[in-house]
Amino acid sequence: MNPAYTGPVIDPHHHLWDLSLGRHPWLASPVAGQDEMVHGSIASIRRDYGVSEYLRDTSRQNIVATVHVEAGWSDDFPLEETRWLDSLDKRSGVAARYVARVPLSSKNTPRLLELEAANSAVVGIRDIVSWHPDPAKSFVPREDMMSDPRWREGLSNATALGLSFDLMLYPWQMGEALSLAAGFPDTQFVLNHCGSPADRSTDGMALWRKGLAELSSAPNIAIKISNPVAYDPDWTIDSLRMVIDHCIGCFGPERAMFASDLPVAGIHADFNALYDGFRTIATSYSRDEQEALFFSTASRIYRLGLPSSQRSQDSSHV
User: Which residues form the Amidohydrolase-related domain (predicted)?
Assistant: First the structure.
C-alpha cells in the first residue's frame, strides 16, 4: 500500500442548476408521485445547486478545477446552459470547462456545434445514448442512436471542431460503442459513470466486465470513475473496489479519472465519503498513478492546461 493521495484534485464530472429558470424538465415536480430514476429517487436533489453549494460540499477536498457536464437543460433552449455557466463566478475554478449538450441528430446540429465550440470553455459534447427496455430506466426513446447516420454525421462535425464526446450508455450497448469508436478514431470518447453497471446480478456484472474490457481496447476511449455508488446504494469500500479496480485495470490510470457526479451522487453518498473511498482504494496504486486518477488525466483530456506546479502536494484548496 502507498500513502493516500493528498495532491490537487480535478473533479471532471458534476452539474449545477437553478430550478427557478424552469429549464430542467427531469427535475420538475413528479407526476402522481413518480419520483424514481434508475439510480433511485431524485427527491433529495430537486433543489438549486450552484457554485456555493458545490464549494460547501467539497470544502474538505483539494479541488483546483472542475468540469461541468450538461445537466439535462431543455432542448427547447439551445446554447442557454453554457451562457448561464458563463455568467457564474469562476474564480474558485468550479466549471472551468464545460461538456455541453447538443442533440447530434438535429437539423440545427452543425450550427449549434459551431456556436458551442466558439466558447473556449466548451471542450466536449454529451448526447446521452443510454437506452433500456424498461422506459423508467431509459434516458432516450430509441436504442440505436449510435448507428443512426444522421447522429453519426453530427458526431463527425463535433470531432472536426476538436470537441470530445462524453459517452453515457448501458453495458449491453458496449459492442455498438466499440464499433463507434473504431469508426471515429479521431474522436476522444469519455465513458461516463464506470460504464453504468446498473444490473448487479451475476450475469449483469459479467456482461459489464466483459464489455468494459473490450471497450478499453479502443485507444480513443477514456473512462470516468464517476458516481460509482449510483447503482450500488448499499455500497461498501469492498463493493466500490470491485468496480473501480476493474475500470483501472482495463483502461490504466492514464485513461481513467475519478469524478463525483454531484449533486446526483448525493442520492447515495456525500462528496467526502465518495472521495475518501477513492483515496482509500487508490492506495493500491503508485503516487504517479494516483496523480493521474485524481488530476492529470482529467487535465489532459479536458484541456484544462493546469501548470505542472499544481502537482505540489501542498497546493491550496479552492
Answer: 10-304
